[in-house]
Amino acid sequence: MAHAAQVGLQDATSPIMEELIIFHDHALMIIFLICFLVLYALFLTLTTKLTNTNISDAQEMETVWTILPAIILVLIALPSLRILYMTDEVNDPSFTIKSIGHQWYWTYEYTDYGGLIFNSYMLPPLFLEPGDLRLLDVDNRVVLPVEAPIRMMITSQDVLHSWAVPTLGLKTDAIPGRLNQTTFTATRPGVYYGQCSEICGANHSFMPIVLELIPLKIFEMGPVFTL
Fold it and tell me: Has residue 202 been placed in a domain?
């Protein structure tokens, strides 16, 4: 999860997030190069004495500053489209979880386990124990296995919400009357936090998401039914 004074992105816990971090660094290097080039041109303009002010035609220069931005856009667009298609792939998921947004809590349904349904509310400050995180911990966590493809079916019962877990690279809108889906495969166990990322009313900031990812062997023993 994020910590105070953090500058970069959270550590990746899924292959998609790893690809997003690589693309972020790739785009950032291109931005640095563009900024350096523009600042260098400004510096030359301000410090170099103009010796010829009658030149009004420079075909070579115009060709370069027309083609170069197009090449830069291609270098950014190709990896971006690749990641976009990767996020839409659904490769035979092992589990399907349905998440329903409400004002202001989440309902989860384990469709592969006899329709197990439970609500997940934020823990009030009076109920927090030592080590719990204020505004992020919930009474019922979503327990899922690692190294298994999981499909999330996301919708809403009232207004627009957004189910987002940054460390997994997930952010999917919950829309009333529409069922969106996203898939992910966690690579390591742990507890990961997210929040509703769509302004949905007065208590929008009190809709945390907590995923507890455990080894598949432990999950198959039935810990999900202890919620």
Answer: yes
Number of structural domains, the chain?
A: 2
The 10s digit of each residue's pLDDT in 189-218 is 999 999 999 898 888 889 999 999 998 888
Does residue 170 contact residue 163 with C-beta atoms inside 8 Å?
yes
Q: Kindly report whether the global pTM for this prediction surpasses the value 0.85.
A: no
Residue whose tokens read 């529409």: 178
Same domain, yes or no: 113 and 168: yes
Q: For 69-125, what is each residue's pLDDT tens digit? A: 999 999 999 999 998 888 887 778 888 899 999 988 999 998 887 778 899 999 998
| Cβ atoms of 141 and 121 closer than 8 Å | no
> Do both 130 and 163 map to the same domain?
yes
The CATH number of the domain where 23 resides is what? 1.10.287.90
Give the whole-angstrom CA distance, residue 143 versus residue 34.
45
Quick one: tokens of 181?
A: 């889906």
